[in-house]
Amino acid sequence: MQKSSRLKNIKSTLLSDNYYILKKLNFDYLMENGTWVNQMREVYDRGDGAGILLYNREKLTIILTKQFRMPTYMNDNEDGLLVEIAAGMLDKDNPEACIIRETEEEVGYRLESVKKVYEGYSSPGVMTEKMHFFIGEYTDDMKVNDGGGLESEAEDIEVLEMPFEKAVAMLNNGEIVDTRTIVLLQYAIIHKLLE
Ligand SMILES: Nc1nc2c(ncn2[C@@H]2O[C@H](COP(=O)(O)OP(=O)(O)O[C@H]3O[C@H](CO)[C@@H](O)[C@H](O)[C@@H]3O)[C@@H](O)[C@H]2O)c(=O)[nH]1
Ligand SMILES: [Mg+2]
User: Does ligand 1 come within 6 angstroms of the Cβ of 105?
Assistant: First the structure.
């Protein structure tokens, strides 16, 4: 953690380390108007992540995934299934190595190179997670397996290859509701990746 002269008396209490780490942070914060206020924030730390938009310039297609996400099921997503970019959590490896590995595990393509386009905090009010956003070109001859995720982790990932146009329609009609996926689809539109 960096030092800030606007913070003092930071006290961290562990609330849960069941799978990842949830802490309660109590601290004094110096407001812009010069007064100190005491604040409490719960902070969830599950490391950083990486995600990628896979695109094929010849076929004008992209590859997304569909998988069950319990937190979305708890909040308005009827069957809990979510259409997403391929993504994973960083282990000890760097973001590039992580996303190349995750791409092979989740959708079955072995990429040689990827391009980093953004880095951003996922949910800065509550999570420490920083997300590394990539794009990567795939071709049919890069396919090495059917994807689907790791059996050892009971991942059950459907691979969706679709025309880019269809994904843009799904973005615009509200079928795509994962913000990381929205970010990279918008990147592809802005930068005319598939025109
Ligand atoms: N037992 C158990 N397993 C868990 C738990 N939380 C996650 N897992 C398992 O840990 C694995 C994580 O798989 P990854 O592919 O590495 O991560 P991800 O879940 O796809 O995460 C990506 O998307 C998230 C957004 O929803 C991002 O937050 C994350 O950074 C990353 O980009 C999955 O098999 C998942 O089931 C938990 O609380 N308990
Ligand atoms: Mg994943």
Answer: no
